[in-house]
DNA sequence: CGAAGTTATCTATTTATCTAGACAACTTCA
DNA sequence: TGAAGTTGTCTAGATAAATAGATAACTTCG
C-alpha cells in the first residue's frame, strides 16, 4: 500500500485530514473496505499516515458526517452497513425525450434565471450562431430533497425567441421546447469531465467548497442536425453515477 | 456571497489557493480559457475570491508549475496549454485504441500485474461467475508522455484460462482476447463517477495526492450478451474528458 | 473482575497558511 | 516621456491547522 509522506503532502493545498478522508473514501468505493468492516483504529491511521491522532480523528469525523462510517466508543469505527444511496442518472444517447437526461421520474427541475447574453465564442460556434446573441437559462434539479445537479442552457435567441417565456411558464426545458414547436430533438454529443465545484456551484448543490462535480457538456439538435441547445450540467459526484447506454448499431 | 464564501471555505480541508487553482484549471480544461488568453490579473482574482493578492499568486504559481500558464512580469499571465484531451467511449470502446485518435503512435498501454483472486461479490455477479474465482489484471495507459489512466480488469478464470499468459505476451487486453479466440466484443454498460485519487492511483498517474479521477465501471461482452470482462478505469480528470459516442441518427 | 484496547475530550504549543502593506521591475499605451 | 497597470519580492502580523500529552468513558475478552 502506498502512503503519501509529509514531503509530498505539505504544501499540496490539501489538509492532511482531507487527504486521509478521501483515501479512506476511495477504499470504501473500491470495496477494499466493505460494509461492516472495522476501520483502522485512530492510532493505526495516525501511524500509517505519519500524523497526530487528532488529525486522524478529524479525517474520520468527515466520513462520519457523510454517513459512510460510524464510530462506537470503546470498540472502533465501522463502515456503515447501508451505503448512501447513489442516484444513477442515464445519459441520453438517443432520443428518449420523455425521460432522457432528466433521469429518475421523481426528479424535479427548477428554472433559476433566464437572461439574454452574448454567448462565449465556442458555444456560439457550436450553436451555429453568427451573432452570438443567446438565451442563457440556469436550472437546478433535485430529487428527494437532495440537490443533484445544476444546468446552464444556451439557446439561439433568433431560432427560439419565445423559449424564455415558455420556460417561465412550464418550468421545464423539454416542455418549453415543445411549446416552441420542437417535438423531437436528439442529443448529438456529450462530453464528461470532473473537477472541483466552484463556490457558487457548491452553494447551489449544498456541497462543501472543493467538493467534486461531474460536468457534462452536451449538444441537442433537431433530427436533421440543426443545433438547438448547448447544455452544461454539473452533478454532485458524491451522490451521482452517470449511466451510459450503448445502443447497438443494429 | 463573499463573506459566506470565507466562512464556508475554512474547515473544508482545501486551502484557498488550491480551490482557486482548480477552478482556473477547470476553465482551461473546458476551453473557457484558451491557449493565449490573458488570465485575470492577480488583483482581479484576489477580489473575485475575496483573498489576499499573495493567495491568488500562489494559486497561479501552481498552474505555472503544472505548465498550464506562463507569467510575464509587467504584462500578465497567459494560458499556454490545450484543453483536456478526449477519450471516446462507445459500443466498440477499447482502452487500448480509443485514446490518441489523433493518430499519434505515442499511445501505449502496459500490463502491471495479473493475479488469480476471489472477485468481489458484485463483480462476480456481473460476470456471471458461480465460483467467484477470477483473473485480475492491472494496466496503465499513457499517451504523449502523460499517464492517462489505470485500469483493473476482471475475467472469468474458467472461460478465459489462458488470458494471463496471452496478456503477458501481447501486453494488450484486446490482443490477448483475440489470442483466446474472442474476435469481437462490445461494451454492454458504462457507469461514470468521480472522486479523489487514492495515494497509489496518484502515484501511478503522476498526480498530486488529492487530484481528481474519473472512474468508469464497464462491462464488456460477446455480441450475444455473454459477459467477458469487468473493467474499472480511473482517468486523470485534469488531462482527460470522456467523449460519449452517439449513434448517428440515420 | 481486571487488563488491554478503543473512542472522546481537554489544554497547550508549534507549524503552516493567509492577510496586510510597501516597493521594485517591467510592459503597455497615450 | 510619463502614467497606469502588471508581476516579483520583501517584511510583519494574524489566523488556521497540526502536534503533543494527558485523562476520561466505554467495550471486549481472558
TrEMBL record, chains A, B:
The keyword Iron-sulfur does not apply. Keywords: DNA-binding, Transcription, Transcription regulation. This is Phosphonate metabolism transcriptional regulator PhnF. Pfam families: GntR, UTRA. Signal peptide: none annotated. The keyword tRNA processing does not apply. Residues 14-82 form the HTH gntR-type domain. GO terms for molecular function: DNA binding; DNA-binding transcription factor activity. It comes from Arthrobacter glacialis. SMART domains: HTH_GNTR, UTRA. PROSITE patterns: HTH_GNTR (PS50949). One of its GO terms (biological process) is negative regulation of DNA-templated transcription. PANTHER family: MANNOSYL-D-GLYCERATE TRANSPORT/METABOLISM SYSTEM REPRESSOR MNGR-RELATED (PTHR44846), MANNOSYL-D-GLYCERATE TRANSPORT_METABOLISM SYSTEM REPRESSOR MNGR-RELATED (PTHR44846:SF1). InterPro entries: Bact_HTH_transcr_reg, Chorismate_lyase_/UTRA_dom_sf, CP_lyase_PhnF, Tscrpt_reg_HTH_GntR, UTRA, WH-like_DNA-bd_sf, WH_DNA-bd_sf.
Amino acid at each position: 500500500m502506498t502512503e503519501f509522506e509529509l514531503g509530498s503532502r505539505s504544501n499540496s493545498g490539501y489538509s492532511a485530514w482531507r487527504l486521509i478522508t478521501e483515501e479512506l473514501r476511495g477504499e470504501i468505493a473500491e470495496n477494499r473496505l466493505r460494509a461492516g468492516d472495522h476501520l483502522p483504529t485512530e492510532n493505526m491511521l495516525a501511524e500509517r499516515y505519519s500524523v497526530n491522532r487528532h488529525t486522524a480523528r478529524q479525517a474520520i469525523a468527515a466520513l462520519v458526517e457523510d454517513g459512510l462510517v460510524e464510530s462506537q466508543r470503546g470498540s472502533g469505527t465501522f463502515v456503515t452497513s447501508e451505503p448512501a444511496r447513489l442516484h444513477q442518472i442515464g445519459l441520453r444517447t438517443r432520443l428518449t425525450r420523455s425521460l432522457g437526461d432528466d433521469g429518475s421520474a421523481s426528479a424535479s427541475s427548477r428554472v433559476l434565471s433566464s437572461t439574454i447574453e452574448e454567448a462565449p465564442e465556442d458555444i456560439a460556434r457550436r450553436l451555429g450562431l453568427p451573432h452570438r446573441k443567446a438565451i442563457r437559462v440556469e436550472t437546478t434539479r433535485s430529487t428527494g430533497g437532495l440537490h443533484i445537479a445544476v444546468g446552464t442552457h444556451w439557446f439561439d435567441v433568433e431560432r427560439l425567441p419565445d423559449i424564455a417565456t415558455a420556460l417561465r411558464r412550464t418550468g421545464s426545458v423539454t416542455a418549453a421546447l415543445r411549446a416552441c414547436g420542437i417535438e423531437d430533438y436528439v442529443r448529438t454529443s456529450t462530453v464528461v469531465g470532473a473537477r472541483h465545484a466552484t463556490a457558487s456551484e457548491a452553494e447551489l448543490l449544498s456541497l462543501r467548497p472543493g467538493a467534486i462535480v461531474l460536468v457534462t457538456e452536451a449538444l441537442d439538435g433537431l433530427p436533421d442536425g440543426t443545433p438547438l441547445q448547448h447544455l452544461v450540467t454539473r452533478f454532485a459526484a458524491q451522490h451521482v453515477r452517470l449511466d451510459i447506454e450503448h445502443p447497438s448499431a443494429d
